[in-house]
Amino acid sequence: MAELTLTKPHFRPGRFLPGLLLTGLIAAAALTLGSQHSFAALGLSGLTLAIVIGMLLGNTLYPHLHAVCDSGVLLAKQRLLRLGIILYGFRLTFQQIAGVGISGIVIDALTLSSTFLLACWLGRRWLGLDRESCWLIGAGSSICGAAAVLATEPVVKAQAAKVAVAIATVVLFGTLAIFIWPLLWPLAHQLFPALTATQFGIYTGSTVHEVAQVVAAGHAIGPEAENAAVIAKMLRVMMLAPFLLLLSAWIQRHSPQRPTQKSALPFPWFALMFIAVALFNSFHLLPHHWITLINQINTVLLAMAMAALGLTTHISAFKQAGVRPLLLGLMLFIWLLLGGGAINLLVHHFLP
């Protein structure tokens, strides 16, 4: 499908309205459901529900509305996504780094890099997956779940079906983590008596996929663990922008295209803007109620992008993908559980 261009001579803004309205309605429904206790307790955020609802409609009703809504849906999937990632910076501050200390930074960096590299190696060598699927599943597992998958998509230019499959894997195993991690705390404390709730919270924040899932798992463990888990997770989210920049540089260097053509590959300017927004937010120049409003708008934009992704994804793509993406997600889940725990213990030992 041709990429949406907003600079054509006969640009008609009205043609975007039906698709934007449809994605907006799906986003509103998903966010409403996500705020209900029954869904929140499972760690199913509005963003996750938006893609689920979008996929249900995308494989039933949307084919009949495709001709009318496609322009607006593509706009939501591409432009609103980038804007949503940029505004996500208002959720973070550089002061949050101090909350987890040097050990927390090292743990997050080692967990992120090892998980992503493992995804590339296992996915390509053992499972025979394409590069884009490995990158997307690796990014979602190593950084911040569905949001990382969505942010990586513009850099790797993956098909919508591969994006949806990657999101499905991180949602599935991240949801399992909500129930497994709290059960690990008594066992971990028994095996390692010196382990504190704060340290286990950092382990939770550095290994569980989604922000909502980290909150749910940390809350089940206790307040001290929950606070540490959220801070560690936010630090991990902040690593999304440098990750995208490094991935983009790697793609450009290893592109099979001729050197004169490499400039055609996209540079993730939105990642730099994400860092700039987080840096600006660190100075606390805006009133709290402004930040709250911006974050609410940001959530809506990301939910609309999720809905658009779901609308353009067909169930047949999952059948084509097979079980290999799920196997990769499972392997990374086991690594985060065991390998992530080993990284946490080693770093806490050498950097108390």
Features of the shown structure:
single chain; mainly alpha; 352 residues; globular; disordered N terminus
Task: Report what the structure shows.
With 352 residues, the protein is mainly alpha-helical. It is 77% helix and 0% strand. It is built from 16 helices and no strands. Helix 8 (160-191) packs parallel to helix 10. It is globular, with a radius of gyration of 20 Å. The N and C termini lie far apart (53 Å). The model is unreliable at 1-9 and 258-265 (pLDDT under 50).
The proportion of strand residues reads under 5%
The mean pLDDT is 85
Low-confidence stretches: 1-9, 258-265
- Helix run count: 16
Shape: globular
Percent helix: over 70%
Radius of gyration: 20 Å
List the secondary-structure elements in sequence, H or E: HHHHHHHHHHHHHHHH
The largest sheet is: none
Termini separation comes to 53 Å
Question: What is the number of strand segments?
Answer: 0
The chain-level structural class is: mainly alpha
